Amino acid sequence: RVRGRYPAATMPQNEHMELWKKRHGVRLDQEERQRKREARMVHKRAEFAQRAHGIRAKQFNEKRFKEKAAMKKTLAIHEEKKNKHKKEDVVPEGAVPAYLMDREGVSRAKVLSNTVKQKRKEKAGKWSVPIAKVKPLVEDEVLKIVKSGKRKKKAWKRMVDKVTFVGEGFTRKAPKYERYIRPSGLRFTKANVTHPELQATFQLEMLGVKKNPSSPLYTSLGVITKGTVIEVNVSDLGLVTPAGKVVWGKYAQVTNNPENDGCINAVLLV
User: Fold this and answer.
1) d(Cα 71, Cα 73) in Å, to the nearest integer?
2) Which tens digit of pLDDT belongs to each residue from 92-122?
3) The CA-based dihedral angle spanning residues 219, 251, 199, 116, taken in that order and rounded to the nearest 10 degrees
4) Which three-class secondary structure string do you get for 143-181?
5) What one-character-per-residue DSSP string does 55-109 give?
6) pLDDT tens for each residue of 40-69
7) How far apart are CA 191 and CA 184, in angstroms?
8) CA torsion angle for 14, 18, 23, 26 (degrees, to 10)?
9) CA dihedral sign, ordered 236, 242, 244, 249
10) Global pTM?
11) How far is it, in rounded angstroms, from Cα 163 to Cα 160?
């Protein structure tokens, strides 16, 4: 028998939120709101730690202690590891005893594996890029106001005047709900990517827009301007990781103004 409002046994709740996101998407400023929420959490947690007392404070401190321990372990894993490698000039100065003759000169050096370095850069959103600084874009230059409504009085819609990337299975929203219009004539799916070490250029398919330096909004809209970091499909190039796995996607920085040239030119970040 069920007592009160809820049944005694816990019922499966399913993935309602995930399903809603799949069907309707998320707000365009979702990432920015999430970042701000996380930034505020530090202050809220500190305030709670100062105010809490009794059993709640005890539970909270225990939880924080575990979190800090886990964080220290993670940092220790990613710390620079000591690595032995041969010296370039193995001939020592002066006489060497006979028992040391067959030993190789070894020097210790702190090194980091490339994969760990790459992961750190991706997490921080920082890469050593060909174009370090770009001119910030004015909003009027990117988003043009589109009047709507019966008497053209409403001005909440925006037309994106720059080159964009929208993905393979993209479907436009109904006119009633579409705020940002991305013209199909300015949608690109391929980029001319130059490999700096091979000194060769390949036309590769784009997988997404990783970061537009001008604004997080432009990143979520997929706007591609000079200095934008895009992800390209490099599986055709046959690049492999140190472990021997084929690299699927790699980042590249756009070096031209695509809306002027009619194509996207980029340099691979290696």
Assistant:
1) 5
2) 566 777 766 665 555 554 555 666 766 776 6
3) 150
4) EEEEEECCCCCEEEEEEECCEECCCCCCCCCCCCCCCEE
5) HHHHHHHHHHHHHHHHHHHHHHHHSPEEEEEE-S----SS---GGGTTSPPEEEE
6) 999 999 999 999 999 999 999 999 999 999
7) 16
8) 150
9) negative
10) 0.56
11) 8
Residues recorded for the chain: 270
Residues 128-185 have pLDDT tens digits of 788 888 888 888 999 999 999 999 999 999 999 999 999 888 999 998 999 999 999 9
Tokens of 155: 């001005």
In the prediction, which pLDDT does 15 show?
Answer: 80
Q: How far apart are CA 263 and CA 175, in angstroms?
A: 29
269 and 259 in contact (C-beta within 8 Å)? no
